[in-house]
What does this fold into?
Amino acid sequence: MTEPAPRAPIGPLADGEWHRLHPASPLLRGGLVFLAVLGFVLANLRERVVEVFVLFFAPGEAGGGEAPGFGGDWAEDPVTGIVANGLVGWALLAFAVVIALVILGFWFAWRMHTFRVTDEALEVRSGILFRSHRSARLDRIQGINIARPVFARLFGAAKLDVSVAGQSGNVDLSYLGSAQADRLRGDLLRLASGARRQEPVATGDGDSVVAAGADAAGTAQLGPGAPSAADRAGAVVGRRVDEFLAPELDPDLAPPESVVRLPLPRAIAAALLGGSMIWLVVIIVIIVIALTTGTLWMLFTFIPAAIGVISYLWSRITGSLRYSIAGTRDGVRIGSGLLSTANQTIPPGRVHAIEASQWLLWRAFGWWTVRVNVAGQSITQAGDAARRTLVLPVGTADDVRRVIGLLAPDALDDLVPLLDAGLAGTGPAPGFTSAPRRAAWIRPFSWRRIGLAVQGGTAVLRSGWLLRRLALVPLARMQSVAVAAGPVRRGLRLESLRIHTVAGPIAPEVPALDRADATAAFGAIAAEAVERALRDRTDRWGAEHAS
Amino acid sequence: MPDPEHAASDAPEAPVPEAPAHVDDDWRRVSPKHVVVEVVGSVIGAGITVAVLLVVGWWFELPWATWGGIAVGAIALVSIAFEPRRVRSIGYRRRADDLVFRRGIMFQRQVAVPYGRMQLVDITRGPVSRALGLADLKFVTAAAATAVTLPGLPLDDAERLRDELVALAETRRAGL
It folds into this structure.
């Protein structure tokens, strides 16, 4: 991270020209669903057609014949009508026209969906009738995600999602070739870092990237020598298999000692001991009661709820599979997933708050989970955002320290002495301003844990008993700070202190401090925030290499 | 040299009008006329509720509605009586690097917003404020929780303050 090692030149997709997406994109973006529906309808139509003919030729025997699936009923009337009126030819023609129109539509949408990367911004043009042109400023990039759903991986494609500051959502490029997506991410991050664009020199290693996108055409080409064609097909299959099995992190980019290991049993146990488990138990008890008493309406109400909770648990477990986190030159990279994989990069200087939290049932095992606040998480995609803000699904205190070291590398030396007391400690601790004993009136269980420290440009907020929390807020990115007191707190001469950051899962708050302490902390935080914000240059982390 | 934003913060050749005017360490209050705005608002709100409750109580002979109406009216009167105090508690202070805002007598709140964090400054005026020549100034940062609104400033003051703050925010902006 310190020495400016020479880097590969900007890749072919980031050359400022307009490019199209992966040729399989239309198929992956909706074509597969279309094909599945089509197949379903056709399969059922076939049943109906057979049945109609049976009915036609042998009316007596068809009474018991029942079409499998509920699609059969749906198709009954049209098919019978068409056969009865002799319109089979017209129906087939109409069908063919519809299919052709849909294919044409998908193809046009693909043709018109282009993107380019300039020195300033990533621009995307799309739409057939209603054209849209989105442009995301590179220096406002808050994170880049690469997702590879199972089907997309079979095609060697990946979805690149660039989140920018703002609520209107992200710029997403779905889909790109898998290798191209990785390359483009690197290029975007490099341009965003403030490093200058280098002239694209020899495109020697770029060729393999282009080939990855074009290999669909390559396999179709029948060479004169049969062995060479077979070799090429073998190479393509080999590359697919390699891509499919490859770990999410490029081993060159990930210093191995910094990667947190998340064993599968721990992931499963942590999910089962999580808060959602209580809901599952409650729901199962209700279902059992409903079954024994025979109140069926309760079953209909709660079985969907049980399915919801189980699918949440399942996604929680699968999301932790093959979890990895590592610091790269262009930010922290977090990858996870077994079949559908996701891979997120948070550039330096984009983390607005970090929180390690520990639920009561996790305490015996010493497990923690770490979340972050980052800008540009649109509120509409709640599930997606929840996954992206989860940095460490479950880990030990050591893992938490390593993750915080990656997320806040500059402040780590100052924070290390505070972390032990901050994570599990109670009572007064060096560095922390604790809440006075009278805070027990409003926080009877957690008042011993309540504490605040300001160290190394970071505010450290400790609180919670049922859910132990330790929040770290880099003051360079704090938005505002507030102290407040209602009648009860005023009577106890207490004040609560809140630090406002961009929207996210963390709302850093110290519930109660002595009034004098709170006022002093308010002043200190406000002053340090201004000073740190002026000095902070982490959001253009590559600029010093360029100039 | 790398980009103009940071260069600006290093060497402020800033077009700030009345250069040192923004630093003043006194708490400033909002215009006392803002009491009228608040009173009119609560009179209209409470008046409608009380009227509905009284009419319902009289028409359907429901004593609880009548008593409810009387209770709402009494609470509204007490809160209106405290309105001047509440408006006097609203204050702001322009420090060298941030704006501090405070309000409340029962529920006190004090917020410090660094100038560089202000994403936009908004002036809104309701019908009563307009009649009195007042305006509300709303500050928006990237955090929704900041929620700082400075009500009841004379329009000229509000516009001048807005321009100053925007200029300050421009010179001190640093990333997000």
About this structure: The interface with chain B takes residues 139-140, 142, 165, 194, 349, 375, 476-487, 490, 498, 500-503, 507, 522, 525-527, 529-530, 533-534, 536-537, 539-540, 543, 546-547 of chain A (CB under 8 Å). Chain A is about 45% helix and 20% strand.
